[in-house]
Amino acid sequence: MTYRLHKELVSAAKSDNLDYRLGAIHSLVYKLPEKNREMLELLIRHLVNVCEYSKENLMTPSNMGVIFGPTLMRAQEDTVAAMMNIKFQNIVVEILIEHFVKRVYGYSFLRSLFMDTQEVSKELSRTDLFRST
């Protein structure tokens, strides 16, 4: 994550509208520099793997958000306002983890976070929406 997008990501996490939150985070992740997006995808993929064993290790997406939110989305300056936003930093990370595995028309939501709109359209056109799972 970058300092440049920090305020917008926190603002998206504050929304009560889940559809807006997901859409805003999608567009903001796409604004990350390519290398940052690639690294974020690798990290989130790893965190999803850890969360798959949450019954044994108690590391749920929410707990991972608490641990990695402040690290991945650290505010540029340590202020009282920044401390008040830690909860929303955690929410962003939790959303990334939770929606990595959710399927949207046959491809993972997180994968779509790292693709621009044209790439998503191409991916959707290659997906058989009517196949049985």
Automatic annotation (TrEMBL):
GO (cellular component) term, any one: dendritic spine
Transmembrane segments: none
Pfam families: RhoGAP
Matching SMART domains: RhoGAP
InterPro entries hit by this protein: GRAF_fam (IPR047234), Rho_GTPase_activation_prot (IPR008936), RhoGAP_dom (IPR000198)
Record domain Rho-GAP: where: 1-104
GO biological process: actin cytoskeleton organization; negative regulation of proteasomal protein catabolic process; regulation of endocytosis; regulation of synaptic transmission, glutamatergic; signal transduction; synaptic vesicle endocytosis
Listed GO MF terms: GTPase activator activity
This protein's name: Rho-GAP domain-containing protein
